[in-house]
């Protein structure tokens, strides 16, 4: 009986201590805003402001951080309402993508943020809200966007120039600049021009490339001019089968395009699809902004 009583007293003491620690934590973080009853603390605001700082955001970062956190909470609440959820794995994957775009790793990005006084969780919290909102927009608004196919085709026709009326079969010749090699783009461009001066057609492209260091030939296949960068399309329009474009510095090296086949062909498919994506994205963004403003107006936001 005494042992049972001691056990109950110990459990009660632990519970009371837990409440004291929770109360201390709440006092340590002052609630600045509540959104539909969900608190946003001064610590969250400070961490988001630090993130904005290293991103180069000027102005009143504390105010901007506060507004971002309020919007994030509204987005998350709407996601929860319609049954959208974002897993930790999705957030970590998005975090890793940011690191990859910086040519780094998740661990290095974490260290970079920490060294600059930013809690990595601040970025992950923002990513979670962004991922949730992306799903909300796709689920709720995508079906509302209607575009006129006739208008898209007319716009595409207006953008077509004489240089865009060709169909090609191409090979790319790439003079690679190995990462960390210290080799300059100008040096590789000079070597590419040597290749170009000796170029005798697509059939001999590989044999010629073997005579140069770190030169590769890739079959690009069929491409319509509207699928190519405008400057390249203009240059290729002035070349004939068996000729090769001038060198261009690209990611990873210096590139040239060789024409293996060429035919006149008017095709609006690619331009129309590009316009559809651009206008669809613009219309979707406009709808999403209006949707968010309605949610913000309906939210119970209390500032302290």
From TrEMBL:
Gene3D superfamilies: Porin chaperone SurA, peptide-binding domain. Residues 1-28 form the signal peptide. Pfam families: SurA_N. Residues 67-136 form the SurA N-terminal domain. It comes from the Bacteria. GO terms for molecular function: peptidyl-prolyl cis-trans isomerase activity. Keywords: Isomerase, Rotamase, Signal. This is Peptidylprolyl isomerase. The lineage of its organism: Bacteria, Pseudomonadati, Pseudomonadota, Alphaproteobacteria, Hyphomicrobiales.
